[in-house]
Each structure stands twice: as C-alpha cells, then as structure tokens.
Amino acid sequence: MERVAIIGASMTQFGQREAWIRELLAEAGEACLDDAGIEGSAVDHLYVSNMASGEFEGQTGIANAVAHDLNAIPAYTARIDQTSSSGGAGVYGAWQSVASGASDLTLLIGGEKMTHRSTAEATDVIASLTHPAEYKHGVTLPSFAGLTARRYLHVHDAPRESLAKVAVKNHKNGVDNPHAQFQKEVDLETVMESPIIADPLRLYDFCPITDGSAALLLCPESVAAEYTDDYVTIAGIGGATDTHVVHERADPTVMGGVVDSGQAAYEMAGLGPEDIDMAELHDMFTILEFLQSEGLGFFEQGEGWKAVEEGITDRDGELPINTSGGLKSKGHPLGASGVAQVYEVYKQLLGEAGPRQVEAETGLACNVGGFGNCVITTIMEAAQ
Amino acid sequence: MSDTETSDTDEQPPMEAARYPDGSILYPTHPVGPDGNEPVETVDLSEYPATLITWTTSTATPPGVREPNSLAIVEFDVDGEPVRAIGQLTTDDIEIGDTVEPVYAEELREPGAGIREPESQAWDGYRFRPVE
Question: Could you tell me which residues are beta bridge partners of residue B130?
C-alpha cells in the first residue's frame, strides 16, 4: 500500500456567501490546484464531499459539474455523502484512491451552500438523516446534543460553565483565522446568558449555518517531492459507524464511532493518543468536544471537561484543540468541514498557520457525521 | 406545555419493540438484532412504565414540529431486560430518574410540513407522561 502525501490545500472564506455550490467548489478547487502548481487536466480522480446540494439548492450531479469547471476531464469523479462527515469520508476516499494505486493524483473538494435557507429549513434537511422513529417526534441534531449534554453533566458532575468554556476557547482561536465565519471573541457571561436552544445548551453552544468549501490534493509520498518540498503525510486513517438509532447506544455519553475510528487510525499510524501534538475536533456542539477528546483517548472518560477548565486544550496548552476556531467559530458548511479540519492540520504541520501556529509534528482530525453515526479520524505527520 | 392531541383511547396501536434470540429487545424494530438474527417476537412497550435517562426542551424546531418541543430518552424494564426509546414529553416539569408512562398521540408532527415524504413513514406514536 502506497503512503499518501497531501501536496496542496485550500479553503474559501466561510460564512454567508453569495456564491452557489458550483462556484464555491470551483473556488476551492482552483485555489488548491494553484497552490500545488497543477492543471486540472492532470488530476486522475476528483471527489466532491457534499451532503445535500440537491435538497438545499436543487443542484445534483455536482462532481461532474465541478470536474468540467476545473477542466479535470476525463478524471474519474464521484460525490461522497456521509452527512456531516462527508468531508472526512472524502479524505478517506481520496486516501484510498492513492494508497491503492488507482490514482496518482487525486483532488478532493468539500463544500456546502446553506445560508439561503431559514434555520428551520436547514435544521430539517440535516434532521432528515434520522430514523423515522426519531424524525416523527421532531428530533433534531441540536436536540440530541441537549439530551447528551444533560446526561453528561449529570453523570460526571461537570459544571455547565465547562461547556461554555469550549465556546469561549474556540471563538478566541477563530479571531486569528481569516477564513472563519466569526472572528470575534465571546466571554463566558455572553455564552451563559444566550438564548436556550436545546437546554441545557444555549445559542453559543452551537455552530452557525455556513457556506464554504475546502480542497486537498493527494499523491503517493514516493513522488511528492517532484511537486513540492512542503507536504504532509497521512500516517493513519480510520472510519467507523455506530447505530442509526441514537438511543440504542449502551452509554449515551460515549460515541462508539469516535472510539473505533480513532483506534483504527492509531493502529495504522503505529501511534497513540500521547503522540498527538494538536487536534481538530468536530465541535458542531460544545458537548462534542468532550465526547471526542475522551473517545480518542486524550483524556479519561468523564474527564474531558476538566481539560478545558485547566487550559490543557488552549492554543498554548499541552494539547491544543481546534486552533482553527473549530466548527464553532469557523463555521460548518457540512461537506466542507472534514476537509477544512485537515487543511488546518496541514497548515500547522507545515508551520504556515501564522498567528495560530503551535508546535506540532503530528496532528489529528476527527469528523463526525449525524450524531456520531459515522466518524472519520485522520492522523497526519510532517514530511520527514 | 399542553398536549390536546394526547389520548388514552382503546384503539391505540402497540408501541412495538422486537425481541431477538439473544434476549435483547430493541425499539424501534430492526430486521436483525445485535446477534445478527431475526426477531422471535414483538413486545408492546406501551404497557410498561419507564425511567427518564435524560431530556431536553428544543426551542429551534423544524417545520411542522411543536415549539417548544420537549424530548426524552427513557429506559423500560421488560421483565429484567432494559429497552430504551426516544419520544416527546407531555411536560418539561421533570427530572432524570423520574418514572414516566407512554401515552398515545395520533399525530406527533405535521406530515408534509418538513422535507420527508409524508407517505414514507408513520406520524403517530407515544409521548411520555410523568407517573404521579
């Protein structure tokens, strides 16, 4: 199996954009090809990570559409949907295409156009991933977060403020990310007094609705130096699923898909949680940062909240988490998020993260689909 | 929060769970269970009380859903076998550990108001009501 290198990366401005899905995808794709100095026609495989362009915009067939826009013809192309983890699943697919030898050069673009829809409509598009037994009760992803947060605080005797501190930390990080939707700090009081959305969670416990895209270019590590001296390698990657019906999980505060995908990624990389220098976690809701940091073995179960309280996950802490600002402040254009997580790790490992820069040789990205229904964990290393 | 549609009529369908060969019971039912085998019988959970595992009140609800919408994950004890379910609550005056009972509602949200095809699934079901 070929070791795989990432030789180019890009992300667009995240936020409320006038561009529609085709334009957003082409914008990130062009920037990524330019970053690596490569023509679209040289691409063997082109994957597009996207959850719901048909439902949001009435535009289907976007993989072929963007292939044409980038002149990536006759590349093999396909759209990859794994709901919120479409981006991570795209990274997996792109890695697989190169590792298997099927492609010598793979472009991955993840993107979503959402903000033209009302919050209620966007929430319903996303909630349509639920089982009929959940959907008929009006269950939404935010309500799963509220249910889980209340249980977590109850079982682990954690203070409500610990969740708010995730939002405060990630907003602070987002100030230094020029691509972030929110480049603004929030204080604890603002989070704690914001409107209730799914109690005990409030407005600032949730990521916004976002337009945007991000892209990566991958090739075999054996030829990466022919393109650039600045590349990172995918040391390990794992994908896993959990139950579709969320309440059937043995422990509501454990995401089995995080645990299983993390173990697979660690095993492939020959690394463990102690080897990770920085991580991008899927903080679609503040509670998810606790569940992932525990599921990935950074902290004991029920102890993730203490790490945030103690500043361990701050940018200048022992294990910086979400230096990009996370989904919380960067925004969450569904299909783009898993790709943008890898973009941040790539920038950090190359030493190109500017004011966000931390000391890191090994980084991890964890992208969560549904409410932990599908999870992709990717471990990257700076080129030796 | 009031629930005018909630009723205790005799015509209510069962709250159907499935029992699998390894003894586990799942709600909703699945073609195969945790042991990979097909179910051996159905169990009507509406006849059992349940314990509240967690709950939330959602204020940002999708089209056709009541606002606010209180929801709970509960756990039934079916002769020693735990079975979890999710559903709307009849009240938000409730705490983890409280005992609740299922109560039938003919329509939990307005079919067709949201993105899902109305004919593709059922829209009736059981809410959970605290047992005094």
Answer: B100
Interchain contact, B56 vs A146, CB within 8 Å: yes
Q: Do B56 and A139 touch (CB under 8 A)?
A: no
CB atoms within 10 A of CB A229: 9
> Out of 3.40.47.10, 3.30.70.1130, 3.30.420.270, 3.40.50.1100, which CATH number does the structure's domain A4-117+210-227 have?
3.40.47.10
ipTM of the complex as predicted? 0.95
| A247·B66 Cβ contact <8 A | no
| Integer Cα distance of A211 and A23 in angstroms | 11
**pLDDT of the residue at A378:** 99
**Measuring CA to CA, how many Å separate A11 from each of A60, A222, A292?**
22, 26, 24
Position B2 in a domain:
no
Q: Give A156-186 pLDDT, tens digit per residue.
A: 999 999 999 999 999 999 999 999 999 999 9
Q: Which of A191, A207, A233 is nearest to A112 (CA)?
A: A207
Q: Are A312 and A163 in contact (CB under 8 A)?
A: no
Q: CA-nearest residue of chain B to A148?
A: B54
Is residue A143 within 8 angstroms of chain B, CB to CB? yes
Domain count, chain B: 1
> Domain span at residue B44?
13-113+120-130
Name the residue among B117, B132, B101 with its Cα closest to residue B15. Answer: B101
Distance CA A162, CA A353 (A): 27
Task: Establish if B1 belongs to a structural domain.
Answer: no
